[in-house]
Amino acid sequence: MVAEIRRELILRRILEPPGSWYDFILIDCPPSLGLLTANSLCASQEVLIPLQCEYFAMRGIRLLLSTIDKIKARLNPELRILGILPTMYATGTIHAREVVEEMRAVFGEQIFDIVIQKSIRFPEATVANQAMLDYASKHQGTRAYQPGPAHRRQRTPKPLQTREAVDHRACAARANRGSASTADDLVNQRRCGDWLSLDVNSGNQAFLCRG
Is the pLDDT of residue 196 over 90? Predict the structure, then answer.
């Protein structure tokens, strides 16, 4: 695929005929910013970003936002962020709670109300080759994925945030709290020009849907 002309648009051309057959097409992207992810971004209209509730995952999202910015400017002007979904939330830990608070301070309404908690039931369902709805239908993690009162709020896709906007909001969050936090490193990385790549093991994956 590397040798193809306009290789970033291959997936878009492939999905054009079946795109009219379905209401939504979900594309599960690898946790990297290579050619496959670029193809997915070019073929999509909206981006749903699951973000692990870990400090390094939050740092890595900046490069993803930068890539989305470039794709929108050069190849797919219709692309927009549907929202950011906090996942793998470790209940009872101060670190996870601080990360979620930081995410809400920096990204605001782009963060979904629902938080997917970390549980051994998810890998167990994978080993059992079953969906969570079948394996543990009453589990709290399963209920988080099901429609309910917390899901009923209509979400309007927000404009893309540039890296500069993210840094500005991180500075504001830091000033409001008056203490050191994950935003400190977020801002310091911007000042040093050290753009971090996504950790392959961080669980950051963009799910993109085309209506």
Answer: no
